[in-house]
Design a protein that fits this description.
It is built from four helices and six strands. The protein is an alpha+beta fold. The chain has a six-stranded mixed β-sheet, with helices on both faces.
Length: 151
């Protein structure tokens, strides 16, 4: 997963550091997050679904963390980009969160990342708010758009 993330994930829109990736892997190991994987002979896409109190604290302004899940990263190999794999991964994350009785699922993107915006819209996410986020966004508007899917 790390290889796919670092080979296919970096772009002007994504905030990707070694520390954030290691943190996600640790959450998965500790059972505080799940990796939702698209694979055949090899992994060609995945999403990380963070559960409850392991979600970013900033989301507590919208809802109690014990009632939500958060999709951290969604990565699809460039060869399959635009073929609906990302949307399918999001839909699977939503299904898992619902099965685990989380009320809502949050996700965020760079405000100007239109590919992510389209994928989120197809999966049914709605915009919550857009915030200026210079610590995380280094290009364009430097804004983060936060979206939610309510169950």
């Amino acid at each position: 997963m790390k290889t796919l993330l670092f080979n296919e994930g970096p772009s002007e829109w994504n905030y990707l550091t070694e520390d954030s990736v290691n943190e996600q892997i640790e959450l998965i190991r500790d059972g505080k997050a799940l990796a939702v994987v698209a694979e055949d002979d090899d992994i060609f896409g995945f999403a990380v679904l963070i559960l409850g109190h392991a979600c970013p604290r900033k989301l507590s302004k919208y809802q109690s963390l014990d009632k939500i899940a958060y999709i951290k990263d969604v990565v699809v190999g460039k060869k399959l980009a635009g073929q609906g794999v990302g949307t399918k991964l999001l839909l699977e994350c939503l299904s898992i969160a619902k099965d685990k009785n989380f009320d809502d699922v949050y996700i965020e993107r760079h405000e100007e990342n239109l590919a992510s915006a389209g994928m989120m819209k197809k999966a049914g996410f709605e915009l919550v708010e857009t915030i200026y986020d210079p610590a995380k966004r280094f290009s364009g508007s430097r804004n983060t758009s936060i979206h939610v899917m309510r169950h």
